[in-house]
Design brief:
There is one protein chain. The chain is built from 23 helices and 16 strands. With 587 residues, the protein is α/β, with parallel strands linked by helices. The strands form two sheets. An eight-stranded mixed β-sheet has the order 1-8-7-3-4-5-6-2. It has an eight-stranded parallel β-sheet with strand order 15-14-13-12-11-10-9-16. α1 packs across α6, α12 runs parallel beside α14 and α14 crosses α15. It is globular, with a radius of gyration of 26 Å.
């Protein structure tokens, strides 16, 4: 019988294959009391299992392939941190010693106690981390019980007859597999990456869950939050994963299979066709040269940026160097090596390095001050966080200045909101230079820029231009703060609207002001990589776009088809409208 399951679309694409049902990681736990003489042995049993898991995850880190997504390494760090957390370990020991619970019972009891605290957190990202803690405990339980990893494919079994696949081509000559699970840990995802799975489905998870993050970075079709998928789908069922619509179709009919098979081939052909544009200059029909840059998180991302045809890096998110490290900050030398590696990886192309933007949806794992406030997005984050810790901030500035000896560096400051913050920030940069002078350490020249992410900055753009060489518009936060929408909150996520007239007017004004001043301006948020927005931004006068490397070629195609001069008047009409989205399709 054909039926559909609806979830959240988190990684686009189409996957078709036989279902592999992951072993349920939530195993039954036997509850019994132990004798006082057994306490030592029970504690030792838990510790031995915990240590085994720690060693396994460390081996996985060491064996990570060079092209492994950076998010995966960071999430493995989070799991290692949780495994060695004193709250978990001491709580388990107390349940065993004081209550005489058996080891499994003590572990699950302490797990339940801690996860309640996660449930009470208002921040969605932190609530999602409850799943990380659960997976850590379940991994320990598996070792105590001798159960295999939930991602291991089942033993080979005779294929079920599948006449509906006729005519779909040689790509289905050998049955592909899709994974169906309640949830997947980062370690499971690592095994998943090197396996034969073409896509995956999970019962739980949201757009900010680790499964969603890693799936997007791997470019694997995925649907999460599909409720009871792991119970409704049977082993070896044929499944279609529509990662664009967030739909899972089980036991599809021949007509449905034919349609999705066709769509899958079209996506593949489109990607192949776009790849031919890699070396084509990004020039509009009327001869306007457009700069296409890449957003990166790690130096290793430079390879993908060059492969995508990027003319440089428009945003190096340095906070990812600080995350997943159990609160241990990278020192000046470590940061310098990372920035130098990025510059050398881009082979002389400019690299825009943004200072650390910690807070809101990007917290550090441990000891972060923003956890204690009600709304981290409005708290001590980004440049505020840096100015509150001048020693840490200047270490980063010195590392960036030193790296500038090896190539063109553009320094970018996030979330500035007024002249007072600008002066404080630039003063710290001057001190960092003086400190390097005192040490006799060489450093290079920088172009200095500011991100326009809050309405205050957009409204004061002409004041900002007196202090900076260029501007970069962070549309994700600008939309959030202009509309007072927490984009991570599902209750109001539908109100997050990049086409809102207020948002468009702020963006257009910033671009116009920078162009009038003869200074550079780029867009580095999601809007830059959205092909539906390309012509409108060109009409506003934007000539520099920065995006995920995978989006560059599709945006380039839009640019090659556009006449920037003729788009100006149309963009002004859109800007003057109270309902710009209704007329935007006329471009």
């Amino acid at each position: 019988m054909t039926f559909a399951i609806h979830g959240l679309a988190v990684a686009p694409g189409i996957a078709i294959g036989r279902a592999v049902i992951a072993v349920n990681s939530r195993m039954e736990v036997v509850h019994y009391f132990i004798e006082p003489t057994q306490v030592h042995d029970e504690i030792k049993r838990v510790r031995r299992a915990r240590d085994t898991v720690v060693e396994e995850l460390k081996r996985m880190q060491e064996d990570l392939p060079a092209d492994a997504p950076h998010e995966l390494a960071a999430l493995l760090d989070v799991h290692l941190m949780l495994l060695q957390d004193e709250l978990l370990e001491n709580g388990v020991k107390r349940w065993i010693s004081d209550r005489l619970y058996n080891a499994e019972w003590a572990l699950t009891t302490q797990l339940e106690l801690i996860t309640r605290q996660f449930d009470e957190m208002e921040d969605e990202y932190l609530r999602e981390r409850k799943a990380d803690l659960e997976q850590v405990a379940e991994r320990i339980l598996r070792y105590m019980r001798g159960v295999a990893s939930p991602v291991a494919p089942p033993p080979a079994s005779p294929r079920r007859a599948q006449p509906t696949l006729t005519g779909l081509g040689e790509e289905f000559a050998e049955d592909p597999l899709v994974l169906v699970a309640n949830d997947l840990s980062p370690a499971d995802m690592l095994q998943f990456k090197s396996s034969v799975f073409a896509g995956f489905i999970t019962d739980v998870g949201g757009k900010t869950s680790h499964t969603a993050i890693v799936a997007r970075s791997m470019d694997i079709p995925a649907v999460v939050g599909a409720r009871s998928a792991s119970q409704l789908v049977r082993q070896d069922d044929w499944v279609v994963i529509d990662g664009d619509a967030g739909v899972v179709i089980v036991n599809p009919s021949p007509i449905i299979l034919e349609e999705y098979g066709f769509r899958r081939r079209q996506v593949s052909l489109e990607r192949e066709r776009l790849s031919r544009l890699r070396h084509t200059p990004a020039v509009t029909l009327d001869g306007q040269s457009i700069e296409l840059l890449a957003n990166i998180e790690r130096p290793s991302d430079c390879e993908a940026a060059l492969r995508g045809g990027a003319a440089g890096v428009g945003l190096f998110r340095t906070e990812f160097l600080f995350m997943g490290r159990a609160g241990i900050m990278p020192d000046e030398d470590e940061q310098y090596q990372s920035y130098r590696e990025a510059l050398e990886g881009m082979k002389g192309a400019p690299v825009t390095i943004r200072t650390i933007d910690i807070g809101a949806d990007k917290p550090l794992d441990k000891g972060q001050r923003e956890n204690s406030v009600l709304n981290p997005a409005l708290g001590l984050r980004a440049i505020r966080w840096s100015l509150a810790d001048a020693v840490m901030f200047r270490a980063q500035l010195r590392a960036i200045l030193r790296a500038a000896v090896h190539g063109p560096v553009h320094l970018l400051f996030p979330m500035l909101s007024g002249v007072g913050e600008i002066r404080q920030t630039l003063a710290q940069l001057d001190i960092a230079r003086s400190e390097l002078d005192t040490r006799g350490v060489p450093y290079g020249e920088l172009k200095i820029g500011a991100m326009i992410e809050v309405p205050a900055a957009a409204l004061m753009v002409r004041s900002f231009l007196k202090y900076f060489d260029y501007l970069s518009i962070g549309t994700n936060d600008l939309v959030q703060y202009t509309l007072a929408i927490d984009r991570a909150d599902e209750a109001v996520a539908h109100l997050y609207d990049p086409m809102h007239p207020a948002v468009l007017r702020l963006i257009a004004d910033v671009i116009a002001a920078a162009n009038e001043a003869g200074k550079g301006v780029s867009v580095c948020g999601e809007m830059a990589g959205d092909v539906a927005m390309t012509k409108l931004l060109l009409g506003f006068g934007l000539r520099s776009f920065s995006m995920h490397p995978a989006q560059i070629l599709a945006v380039k195609q839009e640019i090659l088809r556009a006449d920037a001069g003729r788009l100006t008047e149309w963009a002004r009409t859109v800007l003057d409208s109270d309902e710009p989205e209704a007329i935007c399709s006329g471009g």
